[in-house]
Structure formats: C-alpha cells, structure tokens
UniProtKB/TrEMBL annotation:
Domain of life: Eukaryota
The protein's role, per its UniProt record: Catalyzes the reduction of fatty acyl-CoA to fatty alcohols.
Taxonomic source organism: Adineta steineri
Record's catalysed reaction(s): a long-chain fatty acyl-CoA + 2 NADPH + 2 H(+) = a long-chain primary fatty alcohol + 2 NADP(+) + CoA
Family the entry assigns: Belongs to the fatty acyl-CoA reductase family.
GO MF, one annotated term: alcohol-forming long-chain fatty acyl-CoA reductase activity
EC number(s) per entry: 1.2.1.84
Name of the protein described by the UniProt record: Fatty acyl-CoA reductase
C-alpha cells in the first residue's frame, strides 16, 4: 500500500504551481474562501487576478485591500505577510460589455491566464428576472467569449448551484435540457423592460421557486451548447454556511440565510 503523498507533492499543488488565475466573485463569501484556500494550500501560484468593481466610494484596489485584511487570511498572514502581492484587482463589472475590462487588462488575461473560476452571481431569490438574466446568464456568455480567446487556458470552473435543477425530483451529474433557449431569453430581455418581464416571470419559472435557480439552470444549458471547446467543469454547491474547521472555525462574513438562523438560535 503506497503512502499518502505530502501536500507538497500532491497533484493539485503541482497543477496550480506557477499558474495565473482569473476569478470573479472574489469579494463574496465563496470567493474569499476560495482565494484563501488556494493561497494556503497551493503556495506556488503565480498570480490571482480578481474582477472587482467600484462600490460605495471604494476603488477596486481599496476593496481588494479590505478583502485581504479580513481575519479569514490570518493563518496565511502569520506565515507569509507578502501574500497580498500576488492578488491583483482587475477593474470591471459583470453587467458591463466585456466586463468593462480595459484593453490592457483584457490582453493580459488572454495572454497569461491558465485557470478561470467564475463565481460571481446575484444570489437574491427575489431578484427581478431581467437583472438575474443579465448577471447569471449573460455574465456566463461573456465569460465563455473571453475564455475562448485565452491562449493558455487549462481549466474553466463555473460555480453553479445544487438547485439549478430543483424542478426535478432526481438530479444526476449531467446537464439537463431546458424548455427555453437561453439565447432567446437574453434577446427578449434586451428589448423588454423590467415591468414587462415581471408580468411573465411566474409563467416562465413554472416549477422553479425563484429567478436565481431558474437563471442558474439556464446558464448550465448555455454552457452545454456553447462551451464544448473549453476545459469546463461545473460545480453545484448546496446551501452555503460558515467554515467548519479551516482556516478558522465558524467563519462567516454575513448573517443571511442559514447562518443568521443558527446565530439567532444560539443566542
């Protein structure tokens, strides 16, 4: 029986060594935890480029600095105080054409990026359908377009949800056919205003409980037909709670959803 490889020899660590990563949703809870885990477990990463928009008077650089100051990174900070040097904010917005990337940033990503994690999404269950389509579906379309131009892309990971097919009783690890064509819904969303879409939302959702699950399912359908040429992986996390043990037990950056319920019950 062969011995377990130490972390320094693992295939995962070897794969990420000297790689450049492009990440969306890096300021959200899942994105923060992913960045921390990559930095802590794969110290040979060359660079992590995070799409960040200006928000509440803070520049992308200031928001990234605030992100790195989180206590989530205390474990890394204790052993490597220079970890922030490989985290690079890329100014952009998921809802802007081509993510609002500058020519310089786009060319840099096309030339240097090896791995893409697309984690950004609107997770509001009551989001108007027009907004949910623009972020959760059109955002995926833009990412496929960008990834298709990357010269050294080795992995494109799309973060979906366990509820992307919640209209079904049994869910397998496959991408299901959708009664709606994603492109046609995007075209409709371009010329229909929010009020018009709201009038037909319930009919479109059918057995889906909300616009979040509906649009995440549409995104998977789009990827199945338009990302066949890419090294694609789709992951479907379930309900997001606090960290279990690492890097610190019980870390959470907001009290929405189950985290808020658990916090209230424990008081």
């Amino acid at each position: 029986m062969s011995a377990v490889k130490p972390i320094s020899e693992s295939n995962i660590v070897s794969f990420f060594h000297d790689k450049n990563i492009f990440l969306t949703g890096g300021t959200g809870f899942v994105g923060k935890c992913l960045i921390e885990k990559l930095l802590r477990s794969c110290p040979g990463i060359k660079g992590i480029y995070v799409l960040v928009r200006q928000q509440k008077g803070l520049t992308p650089a200031e928001r990234t600095e605030k992100l790195c100051a989180s206590r989530l990174f205390d474990t890394i900070r204790a052993t490597n105080s220079d970890f922030t040097k490989i985290i690079h904010p890329i100014e952009g917005d998921l809802r802007s054409p081509n993510f609002g990337l500058s020519t310089h940033d786009e060319e840099m990503l096309i030339e240097k990026c090896h791995i893409v994690f697309h984690s950004a999404a609107t997770v509001r269950f009551d989001e108007p359908l027009k907004t949910a389509l623009e972020i959760n579906l059109l955002g995926v379309k833009k990412m496929v377009h960008l990834c298709s131009k990357m010269r050294s892309l080795q992995s494109f990971v799309h973060v979906s949800t366990a509820y992307s097919n919640c209209n079904r009783q049994c869910i397998d690890e496959i991408i299901y056919d959708n009664p709606f064509e994603p492109e046609k819904l995007l075209s409709a969303a371009e010329w229909m205003d929010e009020d018009m879409l709201d009038l037909i939302t319930d009919r479109l959702l059918n057995k889906f409980p909300n616009t979040y699950a509906f649009t995440k399912g549409l995104a998977e359908t789009y990827l199945a037909s338009h990302a066949k040429h890419l090294p694609l992986a789709i992951i479907r996390p379930s309900i997001i709670g606090s960290t279990w043990r690492e890097p610190i037990p019980g870390f959470v950056d907001n009290y929405m959803g189950p985290s808020g319920v658990l916090a209230a019950v424990s008081c």
